[in-house]
């Protein structure tokens, strides 16, 4: 390992160092001569740069630091080859803002690098021809600005600039806002394009441009999809005890949570204060200790994040349960996770008591009152009395990054529910991934504006809890809690609160599309809809956009075992919202597609099972090592979902392995037939399952919900499908008309219920 000389320059705009800004750019010099103590570079120590040796200046990209592994690998390779000055530029203080601002900061960084080169040239006769700048992503454009500055002041060009996937957004035609790198910035400008049309440039920018495999990220023979913007700053963020609250002082007087039924609300300052109060209560409560489980049995109410975050702050594990479960269902989770405290409300209290009796457990119960005049059941604790307690000093239980903080039970749509252990690292990583500028759809509040987000997805589910609630709190949104979905309540929220963004599942999308009371005025302030749980049909999307052409509809994919998000579409990328797709991988996330039959790796446009790897993948299933080893193999999570990626690395989910129907040895995807069914003008909703067949083994059977006032017959629907698909995909099991498709609260079709019908 070569020794390091640390060069730290206050950002300068004058060769005489007469003017400085209030931030710094750090330069790290690696040579074969400097092998001892790092030296801080000042004008009097520039001699550390050996003028007789070629100089390589390496510049990182957006959301990167000098700690990137490729920085060190590249440096080591140069020094193994001979004598070089390798200067690593760390401009991370300017690269961790939102993407647009960081893009503009490349001009500042380029100016600073240019000043350094000009100074070394004037004072020590540094040969400009021996200077080679190497920049990745936004760093490539910083190199271009450095070259422009040198040429402007010295009337001479640098020897060479290498652009590694120069950033595309804001720099690429026809959306060019900033000038960026060009072929005139050095004698030789060579550019390597492997991310064109996504986050990199497609157009020629150098004297020599290289396009491996057409400049796309799909490399021949390579099935592992990994975006070119990995985030390595998670560990730094994990050290922040108040990751969610680090900016709360900016909007402490803004409304954080509102109950859309009772109208009770909390500001951000109040939520923060009450969270601390609950943590302090648990710190002094002798019936719990670190890593004990608390159980939340509540609908969507404003107190949900206070209980969750206060418990985690106290070092406890938070488990959630469906408040509409039966006593038998709740008792099974009680036996599994053995909570020490239960938070619930009067409406669920009798069921909780019955479940405790079945489980033969006696556990303290804390009641969250949802109305002022509610009576407290005997032998229960009033939640309000706890959170009115002392909030000073703030108590934070020290936790390891891999300690479990959430224990979320899978829905059980395809088997017995299992407790998914999500760690501190998992959750912070996924929140940070969602905040990446080319994905994030939320803006922080200011004096005049605040994002308004209805919390309609259930908070006991990972989708609602992490993506909607916690991510919304992180960005200072006004969150509107909806305890239970009803048409009237939801319409009231749309018309009276003017949401700006909504996280939804397909049933809610169909409600927005088909309910005659949802007008354009109802959605006049809505900018973005993000839909998960199941694919949206092409015909439904087209109809929605015909009515609401200014609303971005983004589809996403994830699973509880991945905290939950792994893929999402982007409105910032050309072709970033392909119909039927779920978008691109999140930062630091990898995905492989493997054959269901052989396990062999597959390439673009070949369907197989998705395997996921990333910092958001769960620790494992609670007290179930076998299920964990079956699900996670060599750090790859087996999703059980079938899909593929195309030549642009856009992913598509087609079905679940366990839901595929095998007809005469052929695999039939229910989702494909369901989309054909919904294309019929008389069909409101549809589901397809496989049923036994004496000759074919299995055949598809459809269950459909008709649109109101239609006289469509089941035979008409069957003929519609059979004309559209191959013989083995046809509905040989027939069509049954029903009133409602049974679905889980997250919007997934409960096929096992239909099979029992």
Would you summarize the structure shown here?
The protein is an alpha/beta fold and 757 residues long.
How would you describe the overall organization of this protein?
Helix 3 runs parallel beside helix 4 (138-154) and helix 8 (327-337) packs across helix 9. This protein is of the alpha/beta class. Among the domains are: 4-216, Rossmann fold (3-Layer(aba) Sandwich); 660-755, ANL, C-terminal domain (GMP Synthetase, Chain A, domain 3, 2-Layer Sandwich), CATH 3.30.300.
Q: What descriptive keywords fit this protein?
A:
757 residues; alpha/beta; Rossmann fold; GMP Synthetase, Chain A, domain 3; 25% strand; globular; disordered N terminus
Structural class: alpha/beta
Q: Unreliable stretches, pLDDT < 50, 5 or more residues?
A: 1-22, 218-222, 227-236
Which percent band covers the strand fraction? 15-25%
Report the CATH superfamily of the domain at 4-216: Alpha/Beta hydrolase fold, catalytic domain
Total of helices? 19
GO molecular function: ATP binding; lipase activity; long-chain fatty acid-CoA ligase activity; metal ion binding; Photinus-luciferin 4-monooxygenase (ATP-hydrolyzing) activity
Main location: other
GO cellular component, one term: peroxisome
Domain AMP-dependent synthetase/ligase: 245-622
